Amino acid sequence: MEKTPANIKHEMETLVKDLNYHCYRYYVLDSPVISDEEYDKRYRHLKGLEEKYNYVLPDSPTRRVGAPPLDRFEKVKHTEPMLSLDNAFSHDEVREFDERVRRFLKSDKEVEYTVEPKYDGLAMELTYKNGILHKASTRGDGYEGEDVTVNIKTIKAVPLKIEEAEAPEEIDVRGEVYMDIREFEALNREREKRGEPAFANPRNAAAGSVRQLDSSITAKRKLYLACYGAGAMKGISFKSQWEFISWLRKARFPVPSMIKLVKGADAVIDVIMEIEEKRKDFPFEADGAVIKVNEFDLQKTLGMKTREPRWATAYKFPAHQGTTEVKEIIASVGRTGALTPVAFLEPVRIGGVTVSRSTLHNWDEIERKDVRIGDFVVIERAGDVIPHVVSVLKEKRTGKERHFSPPAKCPVCGSAVEREEGGVAYRCIGLNCAAQVRERIKHYASRSAMDIEGLGEKNVELLYSKGLIRHFTDIYKLRKEDLLDLPRYAEKSAQNMIDAIEKSRHTTLARFLYSLGIVHVGEYAAKLLAGNFKDIGDLYHVKPESIMGIKQIGEKIAGSVSIFFNDPENLQTLETLKSLGVKISNPDFRKEKEGKRPLEGLTFVITGTLPRPRNEVEQLIGDLGGRASGSVSGSTDYLVAGEEPGSKLRKAKELGIKVISYEDLLTIIKSVTGS
Ligand code: IVH
């Protein structure tokens, strides 16, 4: 066909439409139907045409990048003010909100509400004129915000065009720009590495990313959008919030991941509880739920107070962060003698749990965050992780705060403390340090090790303090009568303990090696050793060279294993365990050696969530002779990307590394193993 201006334009329009559709499938629906390569191919084709004919459609995806940095942000007046929200901190306050609404409306009927998560991000107004994104502005003071259009265009979930048969003449769509929790954490890790201050929460991270004069910085941050509100509009109208949300969805705007329409306060509270329950599975930080009167007519009747509407409120979840005082810092001694500084706090309730301790990880971290005894600090508790110090409130300092230096002597046994060469750890060198011994016993009995049920933290402390267990070999000398003398045990619990110990006498070499607590030998290294040494006796007096031959085991592990198995005292311990009836089988031996090694020489990196646990997939790669590495580099052969891939995906793409799915990995394995 001849290339007339009309059919070139048509070709470009078709391409833009197609690319925008696939962008929507990827970033809004999270369900792409073409590969990244295919998308890139079509994108490059469009770019080529645009350059050749020097013509760019207003909704072309190429407009998402490439704006030169700004000197400042222009001010933008909102046609209708962007309001803030009143808060409700309890279910009772939610009921009071509903009562106020009904009183105002003089309604004895139940009112309809929409309920959705409150996103911890940055409010944004998107103005569309004749269907094309014209301007994006921040909330600012509610009346006037800043023009961040070029930055917002880099967010792929933001539609550049309203793909509706009849796009309204003008519409202001409001929503929240936010950052996923994973992305937020990865960004903070990167910033800390570079010595830059971490963002305190995803909201600040989103705001910091949007308010960049250089839009290429915004483009690098993975931001999303959830649209939840209507501003001014011309040429279209809606009866209710629900109808508006349905329209947004149809017009390909991303809307809150969960939104419900219900009647009456009880039903609202049910949804609030559902959101709170599901919140931990949301990829974004939700700090509450937003409740809105559904009917726009009723909203109008209710009107607004000074800054907040009477027709909406935000129910706030109990906070994950709290502020408290550092009463003391102590050095806690681990099983390998490593000292970990721990802050003892004035107890504070965070998200329904009282927190009185927080790990400070190591002295580098104390220095970096500049935490001192007497400081007021922000503590965060996220999910199941141990509470940690986010930041120090330096403005609260009185001058009486004290630094905490690494102790010269072990606080438990008084032995010397040494700084690990090249590392950040300080270690107690005492061989019989009580803290180390107790921690070693706890480790020996733990689930991934010998798995002795009931022999956890508290019971180990008790048995140790009563002198019943002074070494993990003593576990096998325990008698039921010893336990019955103790306050914690009755007939049944004592019998259970004895049974659990009995059960642990039969174990595998991999588990056993891990249980011994050899420095640097984690579960995975233990498994590799078991794959190469048939019997524990084969490791006695082993030389580092014989271990170094094992793929994936480096100098550090080999050295540490060799030292362990050349120490007469350790060998004595092993003999003692044998004489106490510990029996070791080794189902892992030579599994990998005899098996094929089809992935030999290939390095894989995993990102995101795969259908199987990550360590299992790494194990599979290792078993087949491949190498599973934690970070992407020039020597990476494949990046296996699961759901919600992290920054590794970007890095891999930059380096031109092949990105495959978990299913692709299985296909590769099948094709090379022929099974
Ligand atoms: S509605 C008058 N819905 O919370 C209605 N706001 O505290 C105002 N926010 O400025 C907004 N998620 O930045 C609404 N689902 C949601 C929200 C939400 C987060 C933010 C928004 C607003 C602030 C008010």
Notes on the protein architecture:
It is a single chain. Helix 1 runs antiparallel to helix 2, helix 3 runs antiparallel to helix 9 (264-278) and helix 16 packs across helix 17. Helices cover 37% and strands 21% of the residues. The strands form 6 sheets. Strands 12, 13, 14, 15, 16, 17 and 18 form a 7-stranded antiparallel beta sheet that branches. With 675 residues, it is of the alpha+beta class. A hairpin with a 2-residue loop joins strand 4 (122-129) and strand 5 (132-138). It is globular, with a radius of gyration of 31 Å. It has 24 helices and 24 strands. It has 5 domains: 5-65, Helix Hairpins (Orthogonal Bundle); 86-316, DNA ligase/mRNA capping enzyme (D-amino Acid Aminotransferase, Chain A, domain 1), CATH 3.30.470.30; 320-419, Nucleic acid-binding proteins (OB fold (Dihydrolipoamide Acetyltransferase, E2P), Beta Barrel); 434-591, DNA polymerase, domain 1 (Orthogonal Bundle); 596-673, BRCT domain (Rossmann fold, 3-Layer(aba) Sandwich). It binds 2-(butylsulfanyl)adenosine (IVH). 2-(butylsulfanyl)adenosine is lined by residues 83-85, 116, 118-119, 123, 139, 176, 228-229, 256, 290, 309, 312, 314.
User: CATH superfamily assignment of the largest domain?
Assistant: DNA ligase/mRNA capping enzyme
Tally of strands: 24
CATH topology of the largest domain: D-amino Acid Aminotransferase, Chain A, domain 1
Count of alpha/pi helices: 24
Low-confidence stretches: none
Distinct small molecules: 2-(butylsulfanyl)adenosine
* Sheet of most strands: 7 strands, antiparallel
Helix content: 25-40%
Based on secondary structure, the structural category is alpha+beta
Named CATH architecture of the largest domain: 2-Layer Sandwich
Q: Which CATH first-tier class of the largest domain would you pick?
A: Alpha Beta
What is the rounded Rg? 31 Å
Total domain count? 5
What is the mean pLDDT?
89
- Beta-strand portion reads 15-25%
Instruction: Give the CA-based shape.
Output: globular
Instruction: Give the termini separation.
Output: 49 Å
